[in-house]
Amino acid sequence: MAIISTTITGDGAVTVAHTEAGHGGTVQLADLQHVPDGAGGVDPHFLLLPCPVCGAVLIHPASGGAAPQEVQRLFAHKFKSHGVPQRPDAAGKKRSPKPVKDWQEAKSNLRALVEAQDGPGRWLLERADEGS
């Protein structure tokens, strides 16, 4: 099953295509959730992308899976708009997302996650003309 983001607008609207089902629609960047980590927080390495038509959900890794540029772009926009999720501290206390001041910082935080997951050869967003 492929559910991918095709466009992201400045107001946070994400156009989603559910390719196998032949439909799609729009979701809000603010509504996209990271995968729960089992310790009361979320895992910043994974993002849930729902189909707004049928409710199917695909878990995307930060490195991008089968659509690295599209998924990396989605993560960078999520980080820029809503900060980078932080895992709970050693005492299990939830922490607020780390604020991100600009597009460069969002990409830098994401690049660290991508390279931790799949190594430096997987980072593709820098090569794309994606911008602020």
Explained architecture:
It is a single chain. The chain is an alpha+beta fold. The protein has one domain. Helices cover 23% and strands 27% of the residues. It has a three-stranded antiparallel β-sheet with strand order 1-2-3. Helix 1 packs across helix 2. The protein starts with a strand and ends in a 14-residue tail after the last helix.
Q: For the residues shown, what is the average pLDDT?
A: 89
Q: In one word, what is the shape?
A: globular
First CA to last CA: what distance?
30 Å
The Rg value, from CA coordinates, equals 14 Å
Q: What's the tally of helices? A: 2
SSE pattern: EEEEEEHH
Ranges with pLDDT <50 over ≥5 residues?
none
Would you tell me the structural class of the helices and strands?
A: alpha+beta
What proportion of the residues is helical, as a percent range? 10-25%
Strand content: 25-35%
Largest sheet, strands/sense/barrel: 3 strands, antiparallel
The largest beta-sheet arranges its strands as 1-2-3
Beta strand count? 6
Query: How many domains is the backbone divided into?
Result: 1
Topology:
Elements: E1 3-8, E2 13-18, E3 23-28, E4 33-36, E5 42-50, E6 57-61, H1 68-82, H2 103-118
Antiparallel strand pairs: 1-2, 2-3, 4-5, 5-6
Which key phrases capture this entry?
single chain, 132 residues, alpha+beta, 23% helix, 27% strand, globular
